[in-house]
Amino acid sequence: MSTEPLLAVEDLQKTFGGLVAVDGASFQVEKGSVVGLIGPNGAGKSTTFNLITGFYDADDGSVRFRGEEVVDEPPEERAQRGMVRTFQITRELTGMKVGQNMRLGGQSHDGEKVVHALAGSASDREAEIGERAEELLKELELWELRDEYAGNLSGGQRKLLELGRVLMAEPDLLLLDEPMAGVNPSLTDDIIEKIHDLSDRGITFLIVEHDVDMIMNISDKVIGMHQGRVLTSGPPSVVQDDDELLEAYFGGEV
Fold this sequence. Notes:
Strand content: 15-25%
Shape: globular
Strand order of the largest sheet: 6-7-8-3-9-10
Largest sheet: 6 strands, mixed
Distance between the termini: 37 Å
Number of strands: 10
Oligomer: single chain
């Protein structure tokens, strides 16, 4: 049986002017796992996300997805392969209704795995998009809000909507950038539950999150970064006691 990781990052490098943002980062994400990426402010987490997904060009290094090099591919080609991301600041269209936003997600990732790849007429594809959008809206408990403008949603509801939009692409690897940012604590458990449910169905997650306790509780593996470098990687029980990472945060316990 193949043990090749779904995502393999090797010696990734990125500088902005004289600032080294990512300094030789290397790690792997195994298929079907939930992997957390943590570190103090300025550790290079978001830049690493942008390099993996193609929103920044790497100065050097390798990003392999399903064994194939993608480091020079633009974001849309990586999305077509099944690598899709969210953003720390949600990107829903506030002037459009929730249902319209969700259907748009099925039209934004034009890859083999999405409903646009279905043979048949445009009307058939639109019907399939509508059915998929309805299914996800109900699953994410947003169905009753389908005719509400996205700009009127709470922070947590917007996060759920963005999650639904990227799920329209039927990704293999879902990269979540600060999924708990701006979320009312009452909705935090809902988002965690959805991540668990999706993981159980085979979706692989790489999550950047400042809430270290949440990452330790939800992840199979945690990667700790500081000053652009990977300090540690392993099970949460090991990473949470890593001396270098603890020192990088507060000079003590995370």
